[in-house]
Design brief:
Mean pLDDT: 98
Bound molecules: 2-amino-4-trifluoromethylsulfanyl-butyric acid, cobalt (II) ion
Shape: globular
Radius of gyration: 19 Å
Low-confidence stretches: none
Number of domains: 1
Helix content: 25-40%
Largest sheet: 4 strands, antiparallel
CATH superfamily: Creatinase/methionine aminopeptidase superfamily
Number of helices: 5
């Protein structure tokens, strides 16, 4: 790309007035191939317009999760929660991203106790006292995706389950705080893994976070275990989720053969997850959906 060409990012500006300096900074990084240090591909670097789009989508997604927080209670079936979120997103001009995604049958995911993720809402699934529940919602607005999930505790929850929920939230926050421009993706997994293991929990590795933008799942894959200074270089304009799934027992999981979606802990132990969509900025991170 020459200085006077239009920039690869689609801003309409000349390269020299847009991402030239940015590319030169990356060129100067002397990436260590042996540590898996790679440049982020141009396709995943968001423009200001993209970021504004994800922010707007995130506002609806956040409000949908707030609405779940207001409504979730003991004795309720999970399909009712699904329908509340679906209606809210549609009423606000959005599309619930999960519905029909790779054949997924409902609009959101609700994962209870030993369900790690991708629990399918059902009128037969009734929330009971003691349950720990992850509600994961993704909204598409004007073509832009925003993805987040929160944990909810129903009625009287055991101290062990409460601790798992809190440590998992801490893992997500530590991971987000470790995400810094001109540092590496592996830094995120490293701090999450350390905090989970310090509490004698395990980290699910079969699934992870992901880039998000005009598609639901983009590069990079965000592993929630890892080593500092390894993996993709983090640069301003990257948007991805941090969504650790932490198990009280072993990290092994399996997928329900009948529904093809529900992911369970193999040993039946409890699992928790929190998720935010974040943007890498010039100075740190900005949360776009939570
Ligand atoms: N929201 C999930 C994630 O965090 C993906 C759910 S895909 C579905 O990546 F099809 F199960 F809905
Ligand atoms: Co996600
Ligand atoms: Co999600």
């Amino acid at each position: 790309m020459h200085r006077n060409d239009l920039c690869w990012c689609g801003s309409g500006l000349k390269y020299k007035r847009c991402h030239l300096e940015f590319d030169e900074k990356i060129d100067g990084m002397k990436l260590d191939f042996k540590r898996g240090q790679v440049r982020p591909p141009h396709e995943i670097i968001k423009t200001e317009k993209d970021i504004a789009g994800i922010i707007e989508s995130g506002k609806i997604n956040n409000a949908a999760l707030d609405l779940i927080a207001e409504n979730i209670k003991e004795g309720m079936d999970t399909l009712t929660l699904n329908d509340i979120a679906d209606k809210f997103i549609v009423d606000n001009g959005g599309i619930p991203a999960c519905l029909n995604y790779a054949g997924y049958p409902k609009s959101i995911c609700i994962s209870i106790n030993n369900v790690v993720c991708h629990g399918i809402p059902s009128e037969k699934t009734i929330l009971k006292s003691g349950d720990i529940v992850n509600v994961d919602i993704t909204t598409i607005l004007n073509g832009y995706f925003a993805d987040a999930s929160r944990m909810f505790m129903i009625g009287d929850v055991s101290d062990e389950a409460k601790k798992l929920v809190e440590v998992t939230r801490q893992c997500m926050e530590l991971g987000i705080n470790a995400a810094k421009p001109w540092h590496f993706l592996g830094d995120i997994g490293a701090v999450i893994e350390k905090n989970a293991h310090a509490n004698h929990y395990s980290v699910v590795t079969a699934l992870g976070g992901h880039g998000v933008g005009k598609k639901f799942h983009e590069e990079p894959f965000v592993n929630h275990i890892g080593e500092k200074n390894t993996g993709m270089l983090l640069v301003p304009g990257m948007v991805f989720t941090v969504e650790p799934m932490i198990n009280a027992g072993d990290f092994d999981v399996y997928t329900d053969e009948d529904d093809g979606w529900t992911v369970y802990t193999k040993d039946g132990s409890l699992s928790a997850q929190w998720e935010k969509t974040i943007l890498i900025t010039e100075t740190g991170t900005k949360v776009l959906a939570e």
